[in-house]
Amino acid sequence: MATSLQRAEAGGRHSGFLRQRLGKKSGELLSEAKTLRQRAAEHQDKITNRIGYGKVSDDPVIQARADVGRTRHLQKEIENFTQQAEICEELAHRKAAGGP
After folding, report:
1. DSSP line for 30-48
2. How far is Cα 43 from Cα 7, in angstroms, rounded to an integer?
3. N or C: which end of the chain has fewer CB within 10 A?
4. Separation of CA 26 from chain center
5. How many C-alpha atoms does 9 have within 13 Å on its Cβ side?
6. What secondary structure letter does DSSP report for 58?
């Protein structure tokens, strides 16, 4: 199975994100990866503690749909942040080993 970095290098998901980071140094990439992982954890906390799940409707069916949508959005953001952190970390390790 391809890594997030390999998919981005092949022009897939996060390829633009990767292009913007190619000129960064290993330390900068690791720092960014740490920040991205913190953001993923913050989003998980929003799901766990139901932060930002405001009242949308008195109708319980509509409210439930809104809550599911909020959770789905936060989960997608967590996935994006995690994949981007993986790209930064793998690229940083490659650069530290003397690679491009």
Report:
1. HHHHHHHHHHHHHHHHHHH
2. 24
3. N
4. 19
5. 11
6. S
**Contact by Cβ (8 Å): 53, 98:** no
Asked if 12 and 19 touch (Cβ cutoff 8 Å), the reply is no
Nearest one of 21, 12, 20 to 94, comparing CA atoms: 21
- Report yes or no: 4 and 86 within 8 Å, Cβ to Cβ: yes
3-class DSSP state of 47: helix
Q: What is the pLDDT of residue 1?
A: 86
Per-residue confidence (pLDDT) for residue 77, from 0 to 100: 98
**Beta-carbon contacts of residue 70 (< 8 Å; ≥ 6 apart):** 52, 53
Task: Please report, as a single letter, which amino acid is at residue 8.
Answer: A
Dihedral sign for Cα atoms in the order 65, 67, 70, 72 = negative
Of the candidates 89, 85, 97, the one whose C-alpha atom is nearest the C-alpha of residue 35 is: 85
First to last CA, the chain: 22
Q: State the pTM of this model.
A: 0.92
